[in-house]
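Action item from last week, closing it out:
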Amino acid sequence: MTAKITTRALIVGALLSLIINVFFAYARLAMATAGMSSDYITAGAVFLFFVFVALINPLVKLCNSSWGFDRSELIVIYCMMIVASAIPTWGFTGNLIAMLPGIYYYATPENNWGELLHPFVKDWLVPHDPMAIKYFFEGLPQGQRIPWEHWVRPLLAWCSFIMAIYLMMITIMSIIRRQWVDYDRLTFPLLQLPLDMTEEGRDGSIFNAFLKSPLMWLGFSIPFIIFSTNALNHYFPFVPPIQLRNSLPLFNHVLVLQTNVNFIAIGLAYFLSLDVGLGIWLFHLVTKGQIAVENILGYSIPGRSDLFMEGSMAVSHQGMGAMLVLVLYGLWNSRTHLRQVWQQAWRGGVIDDRQEILSYRGALLILGGASAYATTWLVLSGVPLGVALFFLFVAFCVFYGLARIVAEGGLGFARAQMTAQPFVIHAVGTEAVTPSGLVSLGMTFSWAGDLRTMIMASTINSLKLADAGNVRGRPLFWAIALSVVVGLAGSVSMVVWMGYTYGGINLDWWFYNRFGEIIHGDTAHKIANPTHPLRDWSSIGPRYLFSLIGAGVMGVLMWARHHILWWPIHYIGFPIGATLTIVFTWFSIFLGWLLKATILKYGGVNLYRKLRPFFLGLILGHVFVSGFWVVFDFVTGETGNRIPIF
């Protein structure tokens, strides 16, 4: 029987979603602490959920056992929180807000933005009032109010657009859920922890088996003690810190491997299949080796490297080619399910969609309407229609591919090796994009650029978790939608408020200063140096040659995976092998993989299952200690005491 979604679960989920988007945004941007809402691990959600499950819910049960939240309610709350976690900081608002007025604030005679950029900025895209912009970056004079009137139009425009993007992400995941969950049977390692935390206590106990496990608390204590020692070093320098970040230089520093210890990555790697874990760390070494060979030979693709490329330019384009094949090959393998979805939507009686968060007809209609709105919005902002369609296709291929990688690879930290903007711009040329289109596409880096988290991945994790807890049906869509609206409103308000209260130039350097500066600077460079794919083939051609190479290699790897039974390496690590997130976590993934392989070989499945709580404790302890010190520093008024999640 399907569990009902209660009103109190929606209220608690919305409240905690607001806390994630307000408090943890403040902590990251103003206090310079850990990014609790920056990655797919959704650390802020895990921290708050653990406090709720281990402290608040047991206290409620002590008052009256019937008042306690049951498993289905807890799952709804967690689903809402992980979706809301994809909005602040790197998800959207942290990138967007300061970038908008930054196009005027950072304009100088030297960079010539007044001539290159300002004539092509649509009035409704950014605030224009000089004093409103000045005070956002330098702080309001005492006694003055925040000039919200200058922000209303651009914020409404951007929020309506991002809601269309979010609806596209949610509906795509609702359509593909059955394929990934029921047919492909992806493992969703990120859900192992919340599944255990939401288990009911036996024999009326207020604590479940997970919270009573000594092995879990042993694993929990290791990162908690280590990182608390480092946090105390911030307050008391005589306390020696414990170094967990190291590097291994090879071949006279031509190849440098990061050997960082991250307990979250170790714990998650334990729940990966061995071939997936092997593929992740092995392809990192392969791509790093390729970059080293390029450096030794002195080879590089001609031309200027684009923003947010990971690794060398050749490796970045390989990654994009591989990502596109991952998506297209996956869609081809899903063709039977997608055909049934289409037939069910328009004829009915093909497959049962009553347990999905949207009927297939509703999902397709919403997807079509949201896609049309997003495309129209981009066209009105200055992007030619053909370029807008091409850009949305490539961007959503990246989103879809990353969502698949997170679902199957259990990566709490992941990003693409290349973004959609340069891939599209170089393919058609800047002249075809037009200056106004370049300005608009530059601003899309706020939601499709420095991407460390997104709602698409959080949505599919939510759908899988809800399915495991028998929380199904249409109400879950409205719960997710509520968390998005609450999170977006809270995050936007907080980021604007912080700018005027403290002055953006005094807050987080990356979000309030550097991000917008490099985005608009890159756009100005492209406008000042127009390109055409045929005229500039000597520099543009090699980029797409390496994209084809990456696509070909990925195709072979996927074919081998599906057709050769003994094939030992999963392809999932190839499209992201040189990304910064893998650079800093590959060694920990290797350690987790090695521990699992050793345990299975010498202890078998029984020992693997017995040690499961220990590795969940490593993940939880690392997340909790970061959140604990964020709260502690907020109470004491301390800043800069960062206990890294990533």
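Closing note: Strands lie at 247-250, 255-258.
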